[in-house]
TrEMBL record:
It comes from Geodia barretti (Barrett's horny sponge). Pfam families: BAR. GO terms for cellular component: cytoplasm. Keywords: Guanine-nucleotide releasing factor. One of its GO terms (molecular function) is guanyl-nucleotide exchange factor activity. It comes from the Eukaryota. The keyword Chaperone does not apply. This is Dynamin-binding protein. InterPro entries: AH/BAR_dom_sf (IPR027267), BAR_dom (IPR004148), Dynamin-Rho_GEF (IPR051492).
Amino acid sequence: MMSLETFLRQLIRNITTWQEDLQKAVDSQEVLGEGMLLYVPSDLRPLTCYQRSLGELQGAVKTHGTSITAHVLVPFQSLLSLFQDPLHLISKRRDKLLDFDHLQYALDHHTEDPEKIKQLRDACTMAKRNYEALNQQLIEELPRFNQLVQSIIDHTVTVLFQLQFRFHTAVHAALHQLAEQYTPRNRSLPLSSSETIQAAHSEALSEVGGQLISLSIVPASLTMSLPTAIRSGHRRVSESSGPPGEGDREDSILSTSSEVDMDSSISEVWSLLLSRDTRR
């Protein structure tokens, strides 16, 4: 009985925590999307789809939370409140048994006053009857109570699984549309294989990264976390032909960055590009 109540109480706590964490995750993802708007053109189609998907996710989470509260948490909390009376009766039965044991002990050890013995015997008989009546009530009804409670828990957990399936279906639909927008050059991207997704990403990264390294403003010695094929398959060809000038000085600055790591190299490149734009 108490283990069933403990299980139900823990289940309510876990579902509530899961709901809160799920909402926090979607809120954080929404903040991430808002931050991307500061650096990415708002009319970029994939980003527009990303924002729409986030809106669908937020709506799915709210709908799911409302359904979970109405069809799972409220029934569980109502069911939990029903344990108070049976648990009180169990505690009361224990007290009745202690009363009977105390009176029986007093009766067994009192031999002097006949009137006192009679009072103790009557009180002991009454305490025994009270205990037996309450004990019989619990013996008859507690198994049925536990059976009905277990039935309600089983049904409600089934509803919980159904609601989760509906929620994850909605999430999958939203993310599927988003993944289609980000498929490189409209190539097929099976969503069932994470290895396929990573392979497609590596291929696209290799292609774009190769074009990036081939630019004259990017030093050939620049070290970036790109696939080996990018770094080994592309060489920067200097097309500069003219008298030394500001551009040569800047190329010289870029060519001295071979010892820096990825983060500092990228930072240096962007700083230089920004300084160029400022001078222009």
